[in-house]
């Protein structure tokens, strides 16, 4: 069965600090990978996605993620966080059919101004 | 272009009652799926519908059911409500562009907040 693990439950950073959120998945076949963000009081929004091709994908708001197949990882990065990045971040995976998202537990990011 | 629309946004029900939640997918999207979000369990997949047929199902009891109409709109129903059913219920939709197509991104609605008392 597929599963997703996010290593950090709560991360606290100061503005301008660099961010890396870990995500590992468990699945033997071809996967599609996603990072979603949920700002306080808002719905889930897609940050970025990986389907195939270049394993380094860029998303909105300066976020990027790298798919490392050998490590079953899809870590999210941002060189310099802002206070407005305070939110909960979810890593998710689907199989090739793509109809069922399996989510990680989420990482709450708090950015201090 | 309108996003995924869910109604109602907030509702309070009593234990033992049933509830029906509605979802209108993004225009042109044919797949609709439902998720439950709680602080303890996180985001869990309930089921997915495509062409009025349930295509995938998560590990939820039979009290949770759903359906999809010919216009792709979907409803989910929870019968005999329990306190533990209090959650944010999210609907999501996607196009069907063939397997592994990058356009198959899943988009979420704002959710329906259900409180069971």
Describe the structure.
The complex is a heterodimer of chains A (113) and B (117). In chain A, strand 8 and strand 9 (73-78) form a beta hairpin. Chain A has no helices and twelve strands. Chain A is globular. In chain A, strands 2, 5, 6, 10, 11 and 12 form a six-stranded mixed sheet that branches. Chain A has 113 residues and is mainly β. Helix content of chain A is 0%, strand content 54%. Chain B has 117 residues and is mostly beta strands. Chain B is built from no helices and eleven strands. In chain B, strands 2, 4, 5, 6, 9, 10 and 11 form a seven-stranded mixed sheet that branches.
Kindly list the characteristics that best describe this protein.
heterodimer; A: 113 residues; mainly beta; six-stranded mixed β-sheet; 12 strands; 0% helix; B: 117 residues; seven-stranded mixed β-sheet; four-stranded antiparallel β-sheet; 11 strands
Q: Structural class of the secondary structure composition of chain A?
A: mainly beta
What does the average pLDDT of chain A come to?
93
The helix content of chain B, as a percent range, equals under 10%
Radius of gyration of chain A: 13 Å
Fraction of residues in β-strands of chain A? over 45%
Quaternary state reads heterodimer
Q: Identify low-pLDDT runs of chain B.
A: none
Major beta sheet summary of chain A: 6 strands, mixed
How many individual helices of chain A? 0
The end-to-end span of chain A amounts to 41 Å
Order of helices and strands of chain A: EEEEEEEEEEEE
Per the principal axes of the C-alpha atoms, what is the gross shape of chain A? globular
- Regions with little confidence, pLDDT below 50 for 5+ residues of chain A: none
- What is the overall number of helices of chain B? 0
By secondary-structure content and strand pairing, the structural class of chain B works out as mainly beta
Summarize the biggest pleated sheet of chain B. Answer: 7 strands, mixed
Query: Largest chain interface and its two residue counts?
Result: A-B, 26 and 27 residues
